[in-house]
Specification:
This protein has 187 residues and is mainly α. The chain has 9 helices and 2 strands, in the order αααααααβααβ. It has a two-stranded parallel ribbon with strand order 1-2.
Length: 187
Amino acid sequence: MVRCPWCGNDPDYIRYHDEEWGKEQHSDQALFELLLLEGFQAGLSWLTILRKRENFRQAFDQFNPEAIAAYDQSKIKGLMNNEGIVRNRLKIQSAIVNAQAFLKVQESFGSFDAYIWSFVGHTQQKNHFSSPSEVPARTAESDAMSRDLKKRGFKFCGTTICYAFMQASGMVNDHLTTCFRYGLPKA
């Protein structure tokens, strides 16, 4: 079976590639989780985040934005002592700020899904790349998303993080044309 080469032979990467990456995601909860995890990934490998994902879910109340938005200094201290997650104070604090901004977006747009998918016209963009070197790290859409998220108070949402989020959530399909996932249904 031919896959995108980035997943290599690692079973965690293969499972993520085969079952999740590039599939359309419209659940606000799942989109929030991906956005926070992409922020925590900055400067690290995605494999590191994947392997800590269950620990993140437990530590961050299953990525419940209402709970995270209310975190206080005591909770931050506990998270900083949690060896199962990435213990970066700025990233932890940004998760709280992002939860607060996320709730405001939900209130303004009815759902985060309605807001975030507007950057691709509410339709998955299916690219036609045959080589990893063709896949961009950012696009005009990720630039626009990053600018708007920052304007709304989000942190750790640069254009490269936004494009990785777009790939992960299925807003764009960047499976290579040779990959078995390329032609499968988007959901």
